[in-house]
Amino acid sequence: MDDPTLTFDRLxxxxxxxxxxxxxxxxxxxxxxxxxxxxxxxxxxxxxDSAEAWLVTVTTRxxxxxxxxxxxxxxxxxxxxxxxxxxxxxxxxxxxLLERADDLSMAFLTLLERxxxxxxxxxxxxxxxxxxxxxxxxxxxxxxxACRQLVHRARTQVREGERPRQAVTRDTHLRLLxxxxxxxxxxxxxxxxxxxxxxxxxxxxxxxxxxxxxxxxVGAQRVAQIxxxxxxxxxxxxxxxxxxxxGAPGMLRYVDGVLESVQGIExxxxxxxxxxxxxxxxxxxxxxxxxGP
Length: 293
Prior knowledge:
This protein is an alpha+beta fold. It has 12 helices and 7 strands.
């Protein structure tokens, strides 16, 4: 491979990370990175001061344009919109897992939906990718002062929707999640309720393709009954696997051998406080193809 190709491949994970966090869609992120590659292929590389700065700028601007169009489409979306899940093949280092859990979670990406495209880009570049305000200003074509305001306002909006975090070890999360998965497979109503906070909420995205919840279902009894009812309806046919869902332990749920949902789980340290259940078959296609029965 020539040097420009090597350079692009070296930077591809960063570009993919920006595009996915901007759009909440792996397929759309891949399209953006492919468009960036085509522009990079045609660029006069010898005139560039920094290949990375050029590629980050192009990718971010492409993602902003695509997000503007996507936001118009999402106003017509049936039910709750949740991001397309990203499943890891296997765990990385503890430090990487902590970073991914913080800025890749389905909860975090759902919160980002409240931001306008340029604010989302500024916030991500600063808070997730540690870009200097001068870099952000260049990328967005704005002044540094304007970018500082964008980041400040975006940070406030995101924090308003965040739940307080509890420092809990990964081993504890896995132990609790395995207990919940076992209770869900068996239809153990008491076991399910014991691991759900009283104000637990479940959000579901069916995309109008499969039945889901029009609005969040709140309360330990109601949420437990949802899992209980599925196990009773399909006795012995519900199987749950623990997987890395957007950087944190989550669940892949299969019914009669078919992937039915990918679920991101939030904990308060002892009990589940929120579940993001992605059920839209279009958003599950990539996971089903790579993590089938």
